[in-house]
Amino acid sequence: MSHWETQLRKGVVELAVLATISRGETYGYHIVEQLRGLAGLALTESTVYPVLTRLARDGALAVRTEASPSGPSRRYYRLTADGETRFRRMAEGWKTVSQSLSVLLEGAHT
Amino acid sequence: MSIASTQLPTALQTLIDSRLDTIDRMLLGRVPRQDRVAIVREVESQVFELLSDRDDPSREDVLAVLARLDPPEAYLSDEDEVESASPSPRPRTVAAVRSGSSVVVKALKWPKAAGIVGIIALGLLIFSPQLYLVMAVFGGELLVCMLLFAAPAMMLGGAVFSIAVGTMHRRSGAWAVVGIVTGITTLTGFFSLLLSYVLFAGMQ
């Protein structure tokens, strides 16, 4: 993966995590599994977990702990009202940038 | 039988704990303690999720699962990048990172301030006789009198500040330790000098 791809991936990690959780309450490992499989993102636990804990501390995520059938208790995350607002704002920003770049790329000779 | 219903053998649990401890050390001083604990718990939970399909996990199973995880060093670089990409303030975060991570650099200020203030306080203590001499020769009496009160106040204040801040951020790196050491040295030196002066004056 090239340097700019790495930077791009890391720049959108928070949006990717918020988008995953916006689909419904879920737990850490499940989020990692969902993001790991996405082409171009390929986010892993060392990127996702620090973002999850930071978002939770910032109040964007609510955390609920529940016993797991496979070992230690799972931490379930869901968006708070602040998290929803943050996600919508970031998603809008991403769409704008994405559309602008698409326009540029359509006119470019690739 | 899932591993939830039974405990892992101590040797296998030790293998997992060792990895978790290494990740914890990687994060130490870089993210708040509460976050560190949460991250490590998530990794532990992931390990057990990955082991859940084994009835009776062997050492090889545990090693295979650990090999599937990101190496502990991955928590260094990614957190730095994520920090710099983060729009939210992180006042409690402490880390030595590259330029561009202004929020983290801001958090670095306290231990560094403790170290620098401690060094200045110690410098004042060491060079105060020379300073008095220079001021007496070139600055006049008023300046000497001002220095007589200002320098000890700055020394004491600086020493107390560097010890207090250094102690609060003692796990943040070398600057905090420098602050504590220089602060204590300054205080010790200052009171030794004061005591010597009092004893000497008493003998006169």
How are the secondary structure elements laid out?
The complex is a heterodimer of chains A (110) and B (204).
Chain A: H1 3-11, H2 13-22, E1 26-27, H3 28-36, H4 45-57, E2 61-68, E3 71-79, H5 81-106
Antiparallel strand pairs in A: 1-3, 2-3
Helix pairs in contact in A: 2-5, 3-4
Chain B: H1 10-27, H2 33-51, H3 59-68, H4 74-85, H5 102-138, H6 141-168, H7 174-203
Characterization of this structure:
The complex is a heterodimer of chains A (110) and B (204). Chain A is an alpha+beta fold. Chain A has one domain (3-106): Arc Repressor Mutant, subunit A, CATH 1.10.10. In chain A, 61% of the residues lie in helices and 17% in strands. Chain A contains five helices and three strands; from the N terminus they run ααβααββα. In chain A, a hairpin with a 2-residue loop joins β2 and β3 (71-79). The model of chain A has no long low-confidence stretch (mean pLDDT 91). Chain B has 204 residues and is mostly helical. Chain B folds into two domains: 10-85, no CATH class; 102-203. Chain B has helices spanning 10-27, 33-51, 59-68, 74-85, 102-138, 141-168, 174-203. In chain B, α1 (10-27) runs parallel beside α3 and α6 crosses α7 (174-203). The A-B interface holds A 7, 10-11, 13-14, 27-29, 32, 44-47, 49-54, 56-58, 68-75 and B 2-4, 27, 31-32, 34-35, 38-39, 41-49, 51-52, 69-70, 74-75, 78-79, 81-82, 85-86, 88, 90.
Quick structural gist:
The complex is a heterodimer of chains A (about 110) and B (about 200). In chain A, about 60% of the residues lie in helices and about 15% in strands. Chain A has about 110 residues and is an alpha+beta fold.
Shape of chain B: rod-shaped
- Our count of helices of chain A gives 5
CATH fold name of chain A: Arc Repressor Mutant, subunit A
Radius of gyration of chain A: 16 Å
Features of this protein?
heterodimer; A: 110 residues; alpha+beta; Arc Repressor Mutant, subunit A; three-stranded antiparallel β-sheet; 5 helices; B: 204 residues; mainly alpha; 2 domains; 7 helices; 75% helix; rod-shaped
